[in-house]
Amino acid sequence: MTAAPEPVLGGGLPAGGAMRVMGSETEYGIHAPAAPGANATMMSARVVQAYAQVTRLRAAGGAETRWDYTDEEPLHDARGWTLERGQAHPSQLTDQPPVLDAEAVALAYGHEELELDGEDESGSLLMNMVLGNGARLYVDHAHPEYSSPEVTNPAAAVAWDAAGDLVGLAAVRRLASDTELPAVNLYKNNTDNKSVSYGSHENYLMPRSVPFGDIVRGLTPFFVSRQIICGSGRVGMGQDSSRSGYQISQRADFFEAEVGLETTIRRPIINTRDEPHATADKYRRLHVIIGDANLSQVSNYLKFGTTAMVLSLIEAGLAPRIEVHEPVAALQAISHDTTLTAQVRLLDGRRVTALDLQWMYHEAAAKLAQDTGVSDAVDGDGHTHAVLERWATTLTQLDSDRSAAATSVEWLAKLSILEGYRQRDGLQWNDARLGLVDLQWSDLRPEKGLYYRLLSRNRMQRIVDDADIAAAVTEPPSDTRAYFRGRCVSSFSKDVVGASWDSVIFDVPGYGRLQRVPTREPLRGTKALTGGLFAKHREAGSFLAELLGSAPAPPPA
Amino acid sequence: MAGQEQQQPQPRDTEVEEEVPVPPAPAEGQASASTQGVDDLLDEIDGVLESNAEEFVRAFVQKGGQ
C-alpha cells in the first residue's frame, strides 16, 4: 500500500459556540418476537446483510465496503497510557474484525441455508458496511450499530442520526419480507430493563492541547444534569428494575465510575478512550458514553448543541467552577426525581438542582458566545444563536410549563403517555403495559413506534424536515471528510475495498497495489474541495490519478 | 444511485394511512401536548401496542453492549 497525500486543505470552524466536528453512534436493541432465543449477533448480522441488499438494489454494483481496522486503538487511554491486551475485557478489543463463520451461523439457526448474498469471499457474513452517506453500519457485539458520518453542527447531527433510524427501518422491512427466517424489530433504546444496557455515544473533536483534567472537571457537573433535557425516560429503577417507578434517564443507573476507559463494564461518566481517528498530535476525539439514544429531535439537538458549547467553554478555560459531590450518586438522584426539585451538593457547600446547574452552564456559554460573536443572530455562526435560544426555552418550560416541554423533551413526552394510562386505567408502575409503552416508544417502525405516533400528530417538535432526514440516508454531509468517504463508496464502490474514519482504500486496475487515501483531517475532503473531482470522473482510476497528482500505469488493454 | 427513490424507506405518512387512521393535525401545525386529545391518543396507542404485554416485555432480553 502507498500513503497518498492528503486531500486539499479545509478551513476551521468558528470557535466559541456550538459548531464542532461531531457524530453519533447508536446501538439498537434487537428482538425477534417469533424467535425470542435467536442469537443476537446473528440477528444483527442479518440486519447489516439486509441493508446491503437494500443498497445493492439502490445502486447497481453494491454500496457496501469493508471496514479498515488499521487505526483503531480502543485501549489507548486519554490520560496517557495504553491498557495491555491481556488485561482488557474481551468487549474492549474493538480493533479486530468479528468473525461469524458458517459454524456459528449453523449453531444460531440450526441450518446453513442462509442466503449467501451477504457473504464476503472469506465465507463469513458481512458484519460491516460503509454507507454512501459516510456512516458505518456494523455488528457491535450483540447489537447492530449505526455510526453517523462526521458533521459540523447539532442540526446536522440530528439529521444524520435520524437517518440511521431510517437505515434500521429499511433493514427491518427487508427482513420482514423474508419468509424463511423470523422478522426482527429494532428499538432505539438503551436497556432491556433486566440488567443490560447498550450505548448511544457521541463523539466530539477537540484540540489535543486541552488538558484532560480540564475536560473532566468542566464536563462532569454538566453530564450529571443534562439528562433533564435529553433523557429518554425509563420505566423501572435500578439496573435490574427491581424497584418500580419512572426515571428521567435510560442510562443513569448503569454508571458506576467517574472516569475510566471501559464502556461495557464499570461505566464511567467521562470515558477516556483515546482513538482520535484523526491527526493524533492535533486532536482528541472525546468519546461520550453517558447519553441516552434520542428519538426526540429537540432532545437530540440540545444534547449535541449544548455539549459542543460546554466543550468550547472548557477550551476557553471558562467552564463554571463547580464540582459536584459524589457525581455518580448525584447523576442517579437527578434521574430518579421527575419533579426536578432534587438537590445535589457542590463541594463549595451549595445545594443546587439540575436546572440550576444547567442555567449556570447556559449563562457561561451565552457569555462566551457573545464575546466571540458566534451567537449573533445575523453575523454569528448560524447555529449557536438557535441552540442558546432553544436551551433557555426548554429550561424555562421544564421549570414552569411542563406540558409545553413535553412536546420536545423526550422523557416528558414518554411520561405524558404513561401518566395517561395510569389515570385512565389505574395502572401501577410495575404494570407490564407501562413496560410495553416504554419499550414500544422506541420501535423504529412508524406504525408501531409510539414516538412516531406522537410525531405524526404533531405532538413532538421537529428540528429538521422529514425530507432532509430521508436525503441524509443516501447523501453525506457536504462539509466534512464524510463527503469524500461517502462519495467514494457511492461513486466507485467496485474499486473501494475498505474504508474507515480516516482512510479510503482503492484497488484500481493499473495501479498494481492498493491505494490507501488517508483522511486524517476531518474538515478536508469536503464537497467544496472534492465535489468537482467527483463530478469530473466516472472511473476510479482517473479520479485517483488527479487526486494523487500522478498518472497511473495504463490499464491493461 | 439510479432508482434509489424506489428503494427509500417508505414514507411515514403512507405507512400511517394504511395502518391507523390519523386524526387531523392542529391547524397551525404547532406541536401541542394539550390534555384534550390524550384519550384519543391513548385509544390509538391501544390499537398499536403489541398484544400480551407481559410476555412481550419479558421476552425482550438483550445481550450486553457498550
UniProtKB/TrEMBL annotation, chain B:
There is a cross-link at Q66 (Isoglutamyl lysine isopeptide (Gln-Lys) (interchain with K-? in acceptor proteins)). GO terms for biological process: modification-dependent protein catabolic process; proteasomal protein catabolic process; protein pupylation. InterPro entries: Ubiquitin-like_Pup. GO terms for molecular function: proteasome binding; protein tag activity. The keyword Kinase does not apply. Residues 1-11 have a biased composition (Polar residues). The modification Deamidated glutamine is found at Q66. It holds the Pfam family Pup. Keywords: Isopeptide bond, Ubl conjugation pathway. Protein modifier that is covalently attached to lysine residues of substrate proteins, thereby targeting them for proteasomal degradation. The tagging system is termed pupylation. Strongly interacts with the proteasome-associated ATPase ARC through a hydrophobic interface; the interacting region of Pup lies in its C-terminal half. There is one Pup binding site per ARC hexamer ring. This is Prokaryotic ubiquitin-like protein Pup.
